[in-house]
Amino acid sequence: MAGNAIVSAFFLDMKSSPLPDSGLDAQLLCGDPVSILEENGEWAKVHAAFDLSNSVDSPGYVGWVLASGLTGEGVDPTHVVTAPRTFLYREADMKKPRTGYRSMGSRIEVVDAAETRGTRYAILASGEAIIERHIAPADFRADDFVAVAESLLRTPYLWGGNTAFGIDCSGLVQLTLRLAGKTVLRDTDMQAATLGNPVDLQGDWQKLQRGDLVFWRGHVAIAQGNINGEAHIIHANGYTMDVTSEPAEAAVERIAYLYEMPIGVRRL
To answer: Residue 57's pLDDT is what?
Structure first.
């Protein structure tokens, strides 16, 4: 396989080397386009199309994935998964065995529809069925990316995770803005350098507005706005090991005690 390909697996782990025990750098979702740069046994070195800063000569999101999770066949995604997580079934019946799963943000090709006992299903090109209410047309754009992030509360923390089955802080920003139609780079330093405009809150975290991004070195949180009279943030973090919402001031104080104060706030 060479040239362009599409992720056909549920999702693919992207690693820095073609070794099973190599650490996780990022993940690619079903339907993501990639360029194959090199092959090594069962592994393929790919350039992830979601990272627009990348080139074949740059150190950005080029990495190794299992080639079995790629297809070179023509795929024409018509829809995107908007539910946090959903199952595939071998036919349009939720009582039948599941055949797979998809994360929010996955792109799929729908060719037909069916209804069983009042539940509507979309039929995929593979013949499998997915719950129709869990998807939207491919041009779907969420009005409020923060609400998308809130739908991922309690999702387990996973270093390098980009999916609703496990996600890290910058992955949460990337995935939720993706649902809002914005292509975002993968890591916090890239996001801090390219997203929105800097705002100076002068240390008053109650001035955070919904959708602001709060950056630390190696960490990012999304401002939710005022909840019960206090500014809150939502973030995937290693303290609770999941996506959680908490008062901004308390989070800043806790993180500063262990690490440092935020290095900036960006307003989209």
So the answer is: 44
pTM of the full structure: 0.94
How would you write the chain as a 3-class SS string?
CCEEEEECCCEEEEECCCCCCCCEEEEEECCCEEEEEEEECCEEEEEECCCCCCCCCCCCCEEEEEHHHEECCCCCCCEEECCCEEEEECCCCCCCCEEEEEECCCEECEEEEEEECCEEEEEECCCCEEEHHHEEECCCCCCCHHHHHHCCCCCEECCCCEECCEECHHHHHHHHHHHCCCCCCCCHHHHHHHCCEEECCCCCHHHCCCCCEEEECCEEEEEEEEECCEEEEEEEECCCCEEEEEEHHHHHHHHHHHCCCCCEEEEC
Q: Each residue of 185-234: pLDDT tens digit? A: 889 998 999 999 999 999 999 999 999 999 999 999 999 999 999 999 99
